[in-house]
Design brief:
heterodimer, A: Ubiquitin-like (UB roll), five-stranded mixed sheet, 6 helices, 5 strands, B: alpha+beta, Aldehyde Oxidoreductase, domain 3, 3 domains, seven-stranded mixed sheet, six-stranded mixed sheet, 28 strands
Amino acid sequence: MIIPFELNGKAVYIDSNPGERLVHILRKNFKLLESKESCLTGRCGSCMVLVGDNPVPSCIVPVFQVRNMSIVTIEGFRETDDYDDIIKGFAAAGVTMCGFCNAGKILIAHTILTSDTRATKDIVKGHFSGNMCRCTDLESLIEGVLQSGNIRRKRQNVK
Amino acid sequence: MTGTFVTDIEFPEQNFGVLIRSSIQRGRLVDIKQPVLPDGYFMYTATDIPGENKLSAMGTTIPIFAAYDIQYFGEPLGIIVGPDLDIVHELVSEVLIESETLEPLAFGEKFASSQILGKRIITHGDPEAFLSNSSRVFESTSDIGPQDHHYAEPLGTIVRFNKEKLDIHTATQWPFHVRSTVSAVLDLDPEEITVTPTSLGESMDGKLWYPSLLSAQASLAAVLSKQPVKLCFSRQEDFLFSGKSAPVQIRYRTSIAEDGSIDAMSVRILINSGSSGPLIDEIIDRMAVSATGFYAIKAWRVEVFALKTNLPPMGVLLGWGEAQTFFALETHIAQILSDIGASPVEWKILNLIDKGHLTITGSELTENLRFPELFNIVCSESDFPRKHTAYELLNKKRTGYHDGPLRGIAVAIGYQGNGFLGKTYENSAYSVEITIETDGQVHIKTGFHSSAMQQILKKITAEKLGIEEHMISFTGINTDIMSSTGPDTLSSKIIILAPLVDKCCSTIQKQRFRQPLPITVKKTYKSPKNDDWNATALKGKPFISITPAACVIELEMDPILYNTTIRGIWIASDPGKIYNKNAAATTLRKTIPVALSKLLAEHIISKEGRLAPSDSVQYEILSPDVISSMSVSFLDSDETPRGLGSIALNLIPAAYAAALAQITGKQICSIPLDPRYIYEILEITEKSE
């Protein structure tokens, strides 16, 4: 089946079994290796991508579902100013990540900030319940998102 | 921010490998019938191994492929490799295995001497004389189940020939063990093998020896098929067949004197090592030396047996057995104190040993353990004395569980042993080489690889040299370049590498504006001349250092649903000199949800040799957002830095269980705390009231 979609801002298509997991397609066909393959059940968050503006674990998305949709992987997101906000915020809060879970943590942080750059600690906390990597602590992560929010507001001149 | 993970590496013309596994728990292999293999697909078994068909690690060996004896369900019998992974899986499912079944070995109080893989007995005085003559003898038995490491990336390896050398990339904590294992299995000179450790993520000490087994299996196939081989487990395969933390049963018998001091303690620890226990020597010894904690005891007997059964090889999780013994010891002590009506903090301060006293291994403590200061912090922050007394009164006056509020608070103490000297330590050597280039970039060369440790070393270097962290990189990390080291665990490395990096940076700073760049400084660790350490007799000082800690947990239980919520966690420890307080706090804080998850959620049982749940997705992990409040404190100190990575695992389960015991009036002595188990305790107690 021919499946067209937009990947990191470029129109692409693949000829694939429609039931193939999106994470396999991203890694095998497009060599986008920072979407990691781990649990294959959608609970660890390592394969997170943005489908439209929503963070989705790409391991549980059959590729036919992204037909004509826009997908941003962490590689694509890295080219944006929004990514810089998060990295600076995480660094300020002392967040260190192992590299395997970056896609999940960064894209979830982005989703929170897109919704509200002044998100409260409780809201931030709830969003990370689906990220199972044990490489950093939740408290630093929450602080990292709050710091990122400050940076994004400054960049966007939001008071 | 990302390193290279083994699943990300691909080589041209690589084959994929899938293991052929036994379908019985115990028996004899009669025949393996190879399916018709398409061109380019190959199958290899034990008979194809040119060297030794075994992996050796700290006193135990396990076969690379079972040749005759099948010792657990899922044991590797061979490997099929080929260019299409799906076809390889199909071929593996078509392999016919003929075997004879034998009765599996059981785990329990009664066992045959042939089941003993290792044992250790330490005695002092005559504990039985106290125990048989005392009217105040307390007994408890704790059962702690197997648990998965649940690291981010499942196990994997990729092997190829590169410039006449066997080039292995794998996520391992022990690259030199990979090299020595592959060398022995393939009968190759170690110099013909290069092992490059890939990114580990948080390994939880689950990638110590298993990557050596996988690498040996993949290397055999790569050498014989003359093509690169990638052998990576799926999450499901990793969950079902990789080593877990060994299940243990720990029985304490303690006699208490009239003045409340401990007359005698008898401890019996049974470790279910599975089919074989790589690292079992160290687990046994670390459990033995931690079995009595730092309590002052007149006479003791500690016996530890590691027993062979027909489960997959069982290993270590963070703490190497200390977490299990501290859980059993502290819940046992909490029960005693509740029964004799003693105040936990006052009693512990009175009955702990300190500077000048002898430890269980006969060494004299040369420094204050600072437990009173640790108690002071956690007690004042948590308001422990008042709450403990109040909850004790409330719980005693209560007419039933529906007569709330149901609250409990408990304190547990323990330590993390850093740099266990054991039997293998003498072979370990560590060095750090730091170069500052003309453009200000700094390169660090060590034998170490974990990202957590790299972050710590980066922070020290950045701070000492006054540069940004992004200017620092790690180089030359493979077995051709790095010095031969033992297994890499965070606790043993922080006490060695952090001071070495510190010294390198100090030397660079002295030379920096006097000599032209680049400047390279190398410092090598010299193992302590521990003349009074006898690994065979387990006499002397077993660790390079220890990190003492205290923990208070407060719980509240819903009187209708019996759900327990954590009102607060307070931990204080003495980690020596702290280079970066945030990093130290993060190291401790990130393991608190792990400890709670191990205690409350992560449940594995064995059903006829097969681990259940049978699907990794059913292995429950506690979400970190269940903790509402936690406080982490450190004592100020200029002592050498000490590890913090397993403090939470060593203390939190015991404190939690003791707080729950205060609510229920029943000793909680099993991990994980199955909700059904708690429900049964409460229902039985309710009915009896």
